[in-house]
Automatic annotation (TrEMBL):
The lineage of its organism: Eukaryota, Metazoa, Ecdysozoa, Arthropoda, Hexapoda. SUPFAM superfamilies: MFS general substrate transporter. GO terms for cellular component: membrane. Pfam families: Nucleoside_tran (PF01733). Coiled coil: none annotated. The keyword Methyltransferase does not apply. One of its GO terms (biological process) is nucleoside transport. The keyword Cell cycle does not apply. Belongs to the SLC29A/ENT transporter (TC 2.A.57) family. It is found in: Membrane. This is Uncharacterized protein.
Amino acid sequence: MYNNIYNEEKVSNFSLPKDKYSICRLLFFLLGVCMYLPLTFLSGANNFWLHKFRNVTDTTNSAENRTTLQINYSSVNLSVSTVCNLVFGVFNITLSHRIKILHRVFVGLIIETFVFFIYTISVEINTDNVQLLYFIFVIASYGVLSATNTVVISAGNNYFTRFPVAYMYITQLGQGSAGLIGNLLNIFSISVFHSDIEKATLLYFIIGSVIYLSTVILFSIERRTEFFQHWSHAVREETDKKWHSIKEIKNVIYKIRDLLIILGIILINLITTNVSVMPLVVSELDDTDSVWASKLIFLNWLCFSFISTLLETYFSPVLTYLLYNVCNLIGRLVCVGVKNKLSETTYFRILNLGLIVVVPFIWLCNAQPKHHIPLLFPHDYQYAILMVVNGLLSGFALLYALDLIKLKTDKSNSDLAFTFYGFYINIIEAVLSPIGILLVNFL
């Protein structure tokens, strides 16, 4: 798809344009965040969706009496979005090369920004009498967001390989930080408004929209700089060239076969825990008078009052989302340090351990309502330990999988490998997403 017209090793460093004030580094970090923010940002507002789809006549808001919309929101959302992802995954494979990568990334970011603004506007609309209609609106909007994000991720992963390797790692750092940033913003918003969940969510979505808008503006400015233009044109795009042959696709699949196995394991983990069971887990003291059920009161013991106020918040945002994403980021950083010290066989064993042990253990935590699967891990500290292990394994495995693409491909076929990587994810998600719906109804 690309013809190399530039060899960076043959050019002296002094002749290369400079990234003034490291603005492009900041842009690539923000682009990495925006590439994965939709995957975590909306799920981080889990308490808001539970509030929107609650039984308005049940003043107790008991987790054991959750409505059908509450129970199935995360899983249905995943199922619909995976269908949209699959359709646009086919677009990535067959037609995306006819549109320049820069345009795919930039226009995609604009669409995602627009969707975030729509979500923000909808937060304070009273939907108690039209819950099903609002449910459909949320699911459909997320489908658009997911489809667009599929194009942005595929194009972005291809595009950033043109720049020096440091910029690729900065982008990956942004991707790994997306969930953590979203969780911290969620916790901050709740700490500001405390019990007013609608105002807290409004602030949360406003900040998310600002992140996207800032990225679009910075992208629009930076792409005209000499540094960006230089690396952006390191390879020439041929939008009128035919797509890769079946033989080329088979060759790339064979080269990254280990990556595909790892991704399959990661996605099974994700679908059967993160987007289905974990949003339903509640504190062991949820039905008691203890403040731990709604606030992490022990954090008041911290010396710094600001940190104490910031983290004194709800159980779900802290243990289900913040702790998991912190450990996910740590897992990525650990992978950078040890990825060349262990064999692929060892990595496979670690991943299998995560799939065989950690995933079923999460099912056995305090996810409500529970009917068939027994409750073997009722305590909050047990759930927290599982979040730590699950986050570390997932973060480590994902970064290692991405490194396998760079390790086993070259510039002539890396674009195809990254595109097929995204398409493969779309296929596996579409096949496995119904399992999440079945699982939460079987609990």
